[in-house]
Write a structure and sequence with these properties.
Blueprint: H1 2-13, E1 22-24, E2 27-29, E3 36-47, E4 53-67, E5 87-88, H2 89-92, H3 108-120, H4 127-136, H5 141-147, H6 171-174, E6 183-188, H7 200-213, E7 218-219, E8 229-232, E9 272-273, H8 274-291, E10 293-295, E11 298-304, H9 323-328, H10 336-356, E12 362-369, E13 375-383, H11 385-398, E14 401-407, E15 412-418, H12 422-430, H13 436-451, H14 458-468, H15 481-495, H16 512-533, H17 541-544, H18 546-551, H19 553-571, H20 576-588, H21 602-627
Parallel strand pairs: 3-6
Antiparallel strand pairs: 1-2, 3-4, 5-6, 7-8, 8-9, 10-11, 11-12, 12-13, 14-15
Helix pairs in contact: 1-8, 3-4, 10-11, 12-13, 12-15, 14-15, 15-21, 16-19, 16-20, 16-21
């Protein structure tokens, strides 16, 4: 249960954020108080301090903090388990049956009212609780909502549960299913008062009331080792998102083999305190919302205990550059040296910040659900901050190549020599049309390579190498072959990091794969430039024979070389540069190397470096002519 201890510690270090909403990823989130949960509300009722109805309005599923009980947090089916204060319409409305509600729900409101009365009569109850209880006791919630034109009625004056015609009223657009299932929240209008669902005094009042009145067994908590703790077998759900009902801890299968055969009762296997369960689940939910990454049903999150904000392992190299350097990527290519230096500076900055915050550990974890009810921790590691930063630094300085990234805000393409994001790697390896279940597995396989410095799996490089060898397969896709090639080169560079490959052309490299790649690169640039001058938009021979060249390089090169002859004749003296370069490369390929043995992944590095070198020199020459 180390994860529960660590997450509970995160909660304690961030108590000042409890109940305080912040904007993250276009949604309002908060670290929930103990014994509270988050619900989406569709109706808001405003009351006076005396419990008189003032007004009501519709909401678009606004997040609302709700006091809950041990039972209501995990209610399902027809069980009558009301929350406190805010709940569904058929719980809070005493006139539910009178306005067309189902008889089978007749006992829902009495149970809710009884529960509310007990809290309102308790010494810890604050004014807002008593005002809400006074109002719901009048049993006119639905009548007031009808009066406010929120709930439409039929000719008999009954609420219409579901709208079947056109011109659907707004309430039916925000409520799924029966309109009586709309979630209602209450607030008390007072000068300078916070809304009830954001009132920290009310949260503390309920926690005190809960601790005093909860009917639950007490004992030793196996997580904290504290004695006389309130114990629970009901643990949090909705960890990944609002509709997530799967749980990390559950033992409700008393007819199968969850604990039978070893224990008579689930509590003999483990006893967990209610408070530590609440804190750890609330902290994990909050961390996932504010800084998690998800693919399909798998959610990843990295965090520190004393300081939750830590570098995201799945980001690209641009994420670690300062604003000035980041902006330069929109006007020119950031070189290997620039990005490496900036990433090193950024990582040293993280180390300094972590030391100031006295950060002891960084935790990386991933959760996923095999079924709708069971959630599992599929990855969990704790790292010393220095080791975590060193691992990220190594990843971002070894798995790199020329990258192009389109910025949606500035509408500009940024070019830099750096590491692609994990999202782009996965898309490049499997293609955008691949099943999300396959993609999430690749995220999990790449994670140890990033944060634990594990070797890159060879099959990943093999998959993307085979994709890139077939440029024509990209014709029917929205993906860019050139972009996928660059990502492939970054992964190949990582796999062969001990050999020190760089984007800059390595003139002295006599590797067979590298030299053949350079040959094809020269052929590509030569023919592409000629076709561009003639305004011909067709594939070059280098592209057409790309796959064949990788499989049978010697034989295919003779074919390509022969087809370049007309271009040499056509451009005359201007072909000298290309001819000299091709002859130099061919002379460096020995008889033993000039065979049809298939080329390895390094072939792509030679090809890409040669192409980039020739285009870069052309741009530099053009700039020199302009300056003259």
């Amino acid at each position: 249960m180390s994860w529960m201890q660590q997450l509970s510690a995160v909660y304690e270090h961030n108590r000042h954020r409890v109940g305080t909403f912040e904007e993250r990823r276009n949604q309002r989130i908060t670290l929930l108080p103990v014994a509270h949960m988050m619900q989406s509300a569709q109706i808001q009722i405003n009351l006076s301090p005396d419990g008189e109805f003032l007004s009501a309005k519709m909401l678009d599923n606004e997040r609302t903090i709700v006091p809950m009980t041990l039972d209501s947090a995990n209610r399902a089916g027809s069980a009558i388990r009301p929350h406190y204060l805010h709940d569904k319409l058929f719980y809070v409305a005493g006139d539910y049956i009178r306005f067309g509600g189902e008889e089978k729900r007749a006992d829902y409101f009495p149970k809710y009212r009884e529960q509310m009365k007990a809290w309102a009569d308790h010494p810890s109850a604050i004014e807002e609780v008593r005002a809400i209880y006074a109002y719901i006791s009048k049993e006119k919630v639905i009548a007031d909502l009808i009066e406010e034109k929120i709930l439409p009625v039929n000719h008999e004056g009954k609420v219409i549960p579901k709208w079947t015609g056109d011109d659907k009223p707004e309430i039916y657009k925000v409520v799924t299913g029966d309109v009586f299932g709309a979630f209602v929240r209450f607030t008390v209008i007072q000068p300078n008062a916070e809304p009830v669902w954001e009132n920290k005094s009310l949260f503390n009042s309920y926690i005190s009331y809960f601790d005093e009145t909860v009917a639950a067994s007490r004992g030793v908590c196996y997580v904290t080792a504290n004695k006389d703790e309130i114990l629970t077998t009901q643990h949090g759900s909705r960890i990944r998102n609002a509709g997530d009902l799967s749980k990390l801890i559950s033992a409700n299968d008393d007819t199968g083999f969850t604990f039978r055969g070893r224990f008579g009762e689930s509590t003999e296997a483990v006893q967990i305190g209610y408070e530590v369960s609440q804190k750890s689940h609330h902290a994990l939910r909050w961390l996932i919302q504010r800084q998690g990454t998800y693919v399909d049903s798998r959610y990843f999150v990295a965090f520190g205990i004393e300081k939750v904000e830590v570098p995201e392992p799945f980001s690209d190299g641009l994420g670690f550059l300062n604003a000035d350097v980041h902006a330069k990527a929109e006007t020119k290519v950031l070189t290997e040296e620039v990005t490496a230096n900036e990433i090193t500076k950024a990582m040293q900055g993280f180390k300094h910040t972590f030391k100031e915050a006295n950060l002891k550990n960084i935790i990386v974890m991933a959760v996923d659900a095999a079924t709708s009810g069971r959630l599992a921790i599929v990855y969990y590691q704790q790292f010393h901050p220095d080791l975590y930063i060193d691992a990220l630094t190594r990843w971002h300085t070894t798995c790199r190549w020329l990258q192009e990234d389109f910025d949606k805000e500035t509408k500009k393409t940024r070019r830099f020599v750096g590491t692609p994001s994990t999202y782009r790697i996965v898309e490049a390896v499997y293609g955008s049309r691949a099943d999300a279940r396959i993609k999430k597995e690749l995220y999990s396989r790449l994670l140890p390579c990033i944060v634990e410095e594990k070797p890159l799996p060879k099959d990943i490089v093999g998959l993307i190498f085979n994709r890139v060898k077939n440029p024509y397969s990209f014709k029917q896709l929205k993906e860019s072959w050139e972009g996928t090639l660059n990502i492939a080169c970054a992964l190949i560079n990582k796999q062969y990091e001990s050999e020190g490959y760089t984007l800059a052309l390595q003139e002295e490299n006599n590797s067979r794969d590298y030299l053949f790649g350079r040959l094809l690169g020269v052929a590509e640039v030569m023919e592409r430039n000629i076709l561009r001058e003639r305004s011909e938009d067709r594939a070059t021979n280098a592209t057409r024979y790309f796959n064949a060249f990788s499989q049978h390089p010697a034989r295919t090169w003779f074919v390509i070389r022969k087809q370049l002859t007309p271009y040499f004749e056509r451009i005359g003296v201007h072909a000298t540069r290309y001819a000299k370069l091709l002859q130099a490369l061919e002379s460096r390929l020995t008889t033993e190397q000039m065979t049809d043995a298939p080329l390895g992944p390094v072939f792509l590095l030679g090809y890409s470096s040669q192409v980039q070198d020739m285009y870069t020199k052309k741009e530099e020459k053009q700039n020199d002519n302009i300056n003259e």
